[in-house]
């Protein structure tokens, strides 16, 4: 039976953290909040524990996982850390930035998917930090949704998706960023963006040279996670782009749920409006789940501009909409 514990975000209860950390050390699964989305955690150095993550999510085994750390020094245990990676860690950790580095042999193949590299990140959420510190091991954690579903931004979504397959859920309330971390590959001569996310590319470029955006096809090879349909609500999602709604016959006579910053261009059944692109990112995945519950038949989402968090928003929206277009 899954245990769900409410935890005080800024001051997580030590006895709860101790129990969850013990579960991690014992090879069990613990879902926990990060500043981006909820993660489904296991001991990242224990192959058997990591395999349980794949089973719980229904995740393809060729999609590697991120290892989470409470300090950047600890990364040396699992990866070869170059100067550029150090600079990025010093500048942006803790925070929503994941670095792909050459892996050391201690990292199980279930984590790396046999790629020879490992993704590492230090989350800034106090509950995540406390859990990793007390567990004393790197925690492997994908987003705590069933594979293909929108990532969970609150504990209730974790419970709904994978509640039966996780030992403990730490409920630290809603997450801040709402979208996953930015993933960059820093193994080669240039820095390559593998997944747009919570850390805007513009900020990275304040401290390093240009971040290369790679075409989708090449990206699929380098970052297997971007190969699958993702983040998708169960109902069709249409994009309202530059005043145009493609496939608009799909919405005729349907119950429409609208999300965006501007007012919807036509009458809708339900709307969720956000003040800023950051708010849009924070509320996007929950909006998908809310519309599903309310029996909405088509979602229409405003296409945001590409600045800052907008790049990640565009990525999630276009991949959630992919099958319908
Ligand atoms: O914000 C986040 O990153 C959340 C929280 C829980 O930390 N985690 C998360 O994990 O989004 P996941 O597994 O849902 O996404 C990890 C992404 C996938 O696209 C995966 O393919 C990529 O990172 N990735 C992991 N290891 C990699 C590696 N060695 N090389 C290339 N891509 C890798
Ligand atoms: Mg995910």
TrEMBL record:
Record: residues binding ATP: 59, 63, 117, 143, 151, 195, 231
Origin superkingdom: Bacteria
Record-annotated YrdC-like domain positions: 14-199
Entry-linked PROSITE patterns: YRDC
SUPFAM superfamilies: YrdC/RibB
GO molecular function: ATP binding; double-stranded RNA binding; L-threonylcarbamoyladenylate synthase; tRNA binding
Class of the enzyme per the UniProt entry, highest EC level: transferase
InterPro entries associated with the record: DHBP_synth_RibB-like_a/b_dom (IPR017945), Sua5-like_dom (IPR006070), Sua5/YwlC_C (IPR038385), Sua5_C (IPR005145), T(6)A37_SUA5 (IPR010923), TC-AMP_synthase_SUA5 (IPR050156)
Localization per record: Cytoplasm
Similarity comment text for this entry: Belongs to the SUA5 family.
Name the record gives this protein: Threonylcarbamoyl-AMP synthase
Taxonomic lineage of the native organism: Bacteria, Thermotogati, Synergistota, Synergistia, Synergistales
């Amino acid at each position: 039976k899954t245990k769900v514990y409410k935890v005080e975000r800024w001051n997580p209860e030590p006895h709860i953290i101790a129990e969850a950390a013990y579960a991690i050390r014992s090879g069990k699964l613990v879902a926990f909040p990060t500043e981006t989305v909820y993660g489904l955690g296991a001991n990242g150095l224990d192959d058997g524990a990591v395999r349980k993550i794949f089973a719980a999510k229904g995740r393809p085994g060729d999609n590697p996982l991120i290892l989470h750390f409470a300090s950047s020094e600890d990364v040396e245990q699992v990866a070869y850390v170059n100067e550029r990676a150090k600079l990025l860690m010093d500048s942006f950790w803790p925070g929503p930035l994941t670095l792909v580095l050459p892996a050391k042999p201690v990292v199980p193949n279930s984590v790396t998917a046999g790629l020879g590299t490992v993704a590492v990140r230090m989350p800034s959420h106090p509950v995540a930090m406390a859990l990793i510190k007390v567990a004393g091991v790197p925690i492997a954690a994908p987003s705590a949704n069933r594979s293909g579903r929108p990532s969970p931004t609150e504990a209730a979504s974790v419970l709904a998706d994978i509640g039966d397959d996780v030992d403990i859920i730490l409920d630290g309330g809603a997450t801040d960023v709402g979208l996953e971390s930015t993933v960059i590959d820093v193994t080669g001569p240039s820095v390559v963006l593998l997944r747009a996310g919570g850390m805007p590319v513009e900020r990275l470029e304040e401290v390093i040279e240009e971040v290369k955006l790679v075409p989708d096809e090449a990206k699929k090879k380098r970052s297997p996670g971007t190969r699958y349909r993702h983040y998708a609500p169960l109902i069709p999602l249409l994009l309202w782009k530059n005043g145009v709604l493609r496939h608009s016959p799909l919405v005729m006579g349907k119950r429409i749920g609208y999300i965006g910053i501007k007012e919807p261009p036509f009458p809708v059944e339900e709307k969720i409006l956000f003040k800023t692109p950051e708010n849009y990112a924070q509320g996007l995945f929950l909006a998908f789940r809310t519309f599903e519950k309310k029996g909405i038949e088509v979602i229409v989402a405003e296409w945001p501009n590409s600045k800052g968090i907008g790049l990640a928003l565009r990525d999630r929206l276009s991949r959630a909409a992919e099958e319908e277009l």
